[in-house]
Design a protein that fits this description.
The chain is α/β, with parallel strands linked by helices. It has a single domain, classed as 3-Layer(aba) Sandwich (Rossmann fold), CATH 3.40.50.300. The protein is built from seven helices and eight strands, in the order E-H-E-E-H-E-H-H-H-E-H-E-H-E-E. Strands 4-5-6-1-7-8 form a six-stranded mixed beta sheet, sandwiched between helices. The chain has a two-stranded antiparallel ribbon with strand order 2-3. Helix 5 (about 110-120) packs parallel to helix 6 (about 140-160). It binds adenosine-5'-triphosphate and magnesium ion (MG). Magnesium ion binds near residues 11, 12 and 133.
Length: about 200
């Protein structure tokens, strides 16, 4: 699903609400059986840890950890042993072509490489849904296209839903469902013909 709309219309706010980081005053949000508006903080945390992945505009990797350590975090948070978490992190990094960069720190890689690590990390916990807020917004055209293709492919082969804010109309029209927002409201919500 692609979310489009002018700056300030509420796209990022909607993603924060979907993630349970802010609670909506009205309406219902249900993710993997959890009612995000009424669930307690612990349940929301578990839902985020087990059912969600996140990719932001600028990787938001932890600067003090290597790329491999960053990618492995979601599994370590779930209690997977470090050795196993890192083995699986390496496998995701390989899928994205960044397996050589495991020992580098975020400050030592390019923007595109850092976004690839963010994509790898977002999928580590086998989430039900990945929330992405302009995941390629900070990359140049070629790089953006490549990272986006990887994000689309990796979610598609796993059957993971992807909810993505994008300014790129080409990306939006390629989505199965496109939501356009203005002034904090959904103005149009269209399923692509292939979904009907
Ligand atoms: N923490 C906050 N406290 C108060 N108002 C906020 C806060 N965060 C965002 N807003 C306001 O809420 C509105 C929606 O902001 P939001 O960040 O969701 O927009 P956006 O659609 O993501 O814009 P952009 O395309 O520029 O990222 C804006 O008017 C913004 O100023
Ligand atoms: Mg935003």
């Amino acid at each position: 699903m692609a979310i489009t709309g002018p700056s300030g219309c509420g796209k990022s706010t909607l993603l924060l609400a979907l993630a349970g980081i802010i609670r909506p005053d009205q309406g219902e949000i249900r993710i993997a059986g959890t009612n995000v508006r009424t669930a307690d903080d612990d349940a929301i945390c578990v839902m985020r840890r087990d059912a969600m992945g996140f990719v932001f505009q600028l990787g938001e990797l932890i600067a003090e950890l290597t790329l491999l350590e960053n990618v492995a975090i979601p599994l370590e948070l779930k209690g997977v042993r470090r050795h196993e978490a890192r083995r699986r992190a390496r496998s995701h990094m390989k899928e994205l072509g960044i397996e050589e960069l495991g020992n580098r720190f975020p400050g030592e890689v390019s923007g595109g490489q850092s976004q690839r690590a963010a994509v790898a990390r977002a999928l580590m916990n086998d989430p039900v849904v990945v929330l992405a807020d302009e995941p390629t917004g900070a990359l140049d055209g070629d790089n953006a296209r490549r990272v986006l293709d990887q994000l689309l492919t990796m979610t598609a082969i796993r059957g993971t839903s992807l909810v993505m804010v994008t300014h790129d109309q080409n990306v939006a029209v390629a989505a199965d469902r496109q939501i356009h927002m203005a002034d904090g409201c959904v103005r149009s919500d269209g399923l692509a013909a292939k979904c009907l």
